[in-house]
């Protein structure tokens, strides 16, 4: 299994290729949303490339919920260590999120 | 509205205040104009076409240029060649027009013609992923959709007026300019970023045109292959490129002191409704389109200084067009040129390139020679310019764009006055 450092290098390479930047421009605290205005298609492209490179099934939520590059690396690292467990900080896979308040008296 | 700003239709006159292009004849209007006047063909032999097993080994490509000033790496990797070329041509056209910063973005629209659109990109996606569709790149749909280049221009510059992609085969560039001019004339837009694009020098596209025997097979003499109206023509030479014109209301252009290239004074469009690929042999419907464009400009046929023919270098197309011109003019036709001998056939960009060059020719009073024209079976019908540019009085030019499906789009381009 990759060390966190090796994983971080892979993530930076893939992200920089999609965003047309250099791996060295990306740090753990880099926010792809705030600093690069990354869109969902680009995130999915990054996910698809990481899946191919890491030979790992990646939950799109892991990338969507990451605050910054470092957080994404942490989530992927946890996922790689134990694919069955939802990574810390990510939403539970397939969770149903209520959009309207539950009726009175219901659980 | 001041009387001299009013079009004969009662609407606004349409000024062209910016021109940008990326074409086999050059990447600026000056380069393309010089190439067309000198009659120097852009066609070259491409080994990759021979290696692909195609019968056609020649095409006209846009000369390589540095896209770094135009496109970020991030953007470039999401889009295909047509979108890249159009973004670059549009940037040049906008720089040329130098619109004021306060120009309302919701009143600027993008109007682009394309004959082939994203089919070449879809060809690549098909070749690469038909057996592993789960690996398709995420950007496949936004890259290949036909309206992608036009919408990329709108997106880049924040133009929120109507954005439309027109597809009328080889007439698409003419159609887009006509429709854009209409939207300016009748007040729907203040500014239109209008023109055409195609970049489809690919195995399946060339192979398909070749199967119709539409392409020249003069593989050993690429410079002699595209020869509109010449007795020895054997088909067109595929080109690629993007051409963008900035259109705005005449009075607005004058008021801001813009450099005005000229005017889209008239336009007309119709359809042969005769055959899906062949033009109507007697040219009657195309002739009607030409007359309607001249009438729309408030001119008579005698006011036209010369005609920029669609002239692709196919026997049926050239012959029908010569008959159409003869049908319009009878015994005293104006001189006729056809730029495709130099540029090749840019498909969706062809009509826009012809229009851009016609504006310069109308202003300078020069008719470019038809490249490679030595002897013509149509010489009894039309006055074909050959050998060297012919000087004429500065005057409006009638520019034809015709396409498969019987599509006809005619424009009248007038010098600034």
UniProtKB/TrEMBL annotation, chain A:
Top-level taxon: Bacteria
Pfam families membership: PP-binding (PF00550)
SUPFAM superfamilies with a match to the protein in the record: ACP-like
Keywords, in A-Z order: Phosphopantetheine, Phosphoprotein
Positions of the Carrier domain: 5-80
Keyword ATP-binding: no
Protein name in UniProt: Carrier domain-containing protein
Organism per entry: Kitasatospora saccharophila
Automatic annotation (TrEMBL), chain B:
Highest taxon of source: Bacteria
Keywords for the protein's UniProt record, in alphabetical order: Transferase
Signal sequence residues: none
Residue ranges of every copy of the Ketosynthase family 3 (KS3) domain listed in the record: 11-415
Keyword Transferase part of the UniProt annotation: yes
Family: Belongs to the thiolase-like superfamily. Beta-ketoacyl-ACP synthases family.
A Pfam entry, by short name: ketoacyl-synt
NCBIfam families the UniProt entry points to: PRK07314.1 (NF005589)
UniProt-recorded name of the protein: Beta-ketoacyl-ACP synthase II
Species assigned in the record: Kitasatospora saccharophila
The UniProt record lists the keyword tRNA-binding: no
């Amino acid at each position: 299994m990759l060390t966190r450092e090796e994983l971080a290098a892979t993530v930076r390479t893939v992200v920089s290729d999609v965003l047309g930047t250099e791996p060295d421009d990306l740090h753990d605290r880099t926010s792809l949303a705030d600093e690069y205005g990354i869109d969902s298609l680009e995130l999915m492209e990054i996910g698809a490339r990481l899946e191919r490179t890491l030979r790992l099934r990646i939950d799109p939520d892991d990338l969507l919920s990451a605050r910054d590059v470092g957080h994404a690396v942490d989530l992927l690292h946890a996922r790689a260590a134990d694919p069955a467990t939802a990574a810390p900080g990510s939403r539970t896979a397939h969770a149903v999120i209520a959009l309207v308040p539950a009726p009175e008296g219901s659980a | 509205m001041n009387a001299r700003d009013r079009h004969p239709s009662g609407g606004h006159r349409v000024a062209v205040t910016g021109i940008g292009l990326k074409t086999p004849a050059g990447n600026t209007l000056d380069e393309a104009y010089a190439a067309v006047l000198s009659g120097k063909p852009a066609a070259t032999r491409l080994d990759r076409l021979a290696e692909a097993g195609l019968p056609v080994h020649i095409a006209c490509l846009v000369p390589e240029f540095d896209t770094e000033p135009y496109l970020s790496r991030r953007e470039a990797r999401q889009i295909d060649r047509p979108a890249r070329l159009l973004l670059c041509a549009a940037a040049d056209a906008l720089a040329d027009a130098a619109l004021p910063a306060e120009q309302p973005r919701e009143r600027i629209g993008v109007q682009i013609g394309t004959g082939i659109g994203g089919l070449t990109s879809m060809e690549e996606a098909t070749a690469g992923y038909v057996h592993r569709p789960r690996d398709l790149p995420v950007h496949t749909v936004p890259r290949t959709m036909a309206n992608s280049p036009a919408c990329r221009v709108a997106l880049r510059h924040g133009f929120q007026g109507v954005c439309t992609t027109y597809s009328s085969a080889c007439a698409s560039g003419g159609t887009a300019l006509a429709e854009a001019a209409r939207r300016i004339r009748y007040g729907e837009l203040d500014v239109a970023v209008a023109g055409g694009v195609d970049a489809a020098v690919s195995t399946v596209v060339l192979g398909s045109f070749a199967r119709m025997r539409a392409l020249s097979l003069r593989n050993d003499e690429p410079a002699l292959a595209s020869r509109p109206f010449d007795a020895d023509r054997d088909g067109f030479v595929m080109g690629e490129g993007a051409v963008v014109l900035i259109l705005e209301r005449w009075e607005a252009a004058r008021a801001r002191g813009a450099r005005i290239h000229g005017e889209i004074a008239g336009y007309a469009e119709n359809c042969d409704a005769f055959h899906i690929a062949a033009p109507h042999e007697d040219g009657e419907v195309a002739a009607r389109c030409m007359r309607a464009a001249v009438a729309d400009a408030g001119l008579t046929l005698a006011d036209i200084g010369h005609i920029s023919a669609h002239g692709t270098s196919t026997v049926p197309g050239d012959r029908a067009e010569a008959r159409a011109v003869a049908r319009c003019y009878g015994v005293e036709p104006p001189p006729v040129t056809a730029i495709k001998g130099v540029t090749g056939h840019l498909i969706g960009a062809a009509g826009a390139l012809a229009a851009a060059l016609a504006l310069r020719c109308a202003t300078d009073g020069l008719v470019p020679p038809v490249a490679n024209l030595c002897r013509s079976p149509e010489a009894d019908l039309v006055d074909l310019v050959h050998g060297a540019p012919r000087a004429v009085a500065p005057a409006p030019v009638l520019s034809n764009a015709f396409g498969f499906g019987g599509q006809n789009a005619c424009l009248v381009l007038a010098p600034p006055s």
